[in-house]
Amino acid sequence: MMEKSYKNIVSIIPPPPFHMVGDGFRVHNFFPSLPETGLKGMSPFFLLDYGSKWNVPPSDVTKGVGVHPHRGFETVTIAYHGKVAHHDSAGNSGVIGEGDVQWMTAGAGILHKEYHEKEFSKRGGLLQMVQLWVNLPAEYKMTAPKYQAIENGNMGRFYSDDKKSFIEIIAGEYNGIKGPAFTFSPVNLFNAKLKEGAKSEFTFNKEYNTGMVVIEGEIKINNSKTAPADNFILFGHSGEDIVIEAAKDSIVLILSGEPINEPIASYGPFVMNTEAEIKKAYEDFYNGNFGYLED
Ligand code: MN
After folding, report:
1. Domain range holding 189?
2. CATH number where 169 lies
3. Is residue 30 part of a domain?
4. Residue 59 in contact with residue 121, Cβ under 8 Å?
5. Domain for residue 271, yes or no?
6. Ligand 1 mean position, distance from CA 51 (Å)
7. Which of 118, 121, 125, 162 is deepest in the core (most CB within 10 A)?
8. Ligand 1 centre from 258 Cα, in Å?
9. Quick check: is 269 in a domain?
10. pLDDT for the residue 1
């Protein structure tokens, strides 16, 4: 057996105070706002907004975030509890149900709106979700917008020997099982759904930026540190292996990808390489070049 070379744990970060995105999403930003990660520390992942469990009161007014643009990256929305609906200017719309993922490539530019699904909004209930922004390499920033609806049943699945625990593969590959998401650079995105006592091992390239969010439960990492629910674990670049053990029944979002070593210029809803490209994005947006979407 090969000797394990564990990835070092840089930091276990409790959720920072939440802020609202529109009136519908109560999120903790783990990056880029935290000094441990900064703008590039998790590249190709640029932003991680984590919506911890929130009991949304019933409402006849649908809450969410109204029409807004994006350019230069992809938004990946994962629903753990509750239902999120969306519409975009490329004509796509749909509902992200519990366990599902929406992978939207903004590319050259898109308008969209994101909000609580109508029936969920009326009934109210538990909402827990993640929105991740995956940066695009310069050569693909102006790619045509597109959209991948990834339903839970279409994800790759790797089961533990006792079949009680499993890894859902959204993007990338785990033990030879591939995820359905098309990505523009190497990205691994998994959910580990582990029963108490279950152990899972991961191996990611040394250079890859790697982090985890404990969505549910509590885990022990590399046989040393413990991370409770709602915490973000940032790994460093020594070693390739990670082992996690569920101290309780747990769900862990795992992200690891090849860094995009290019300059970043970001402002509001745009992530580009230069300030001139940001300025151009605003001009194009104000000139109506992102299409049209009704409020
Ligand atoms: Mn958006």
Report:
1. 9-257
2. 2.60.120.10
3. yes
4. yes
5. no
6. 14
7. 121
8. 24
9. no
10. 55
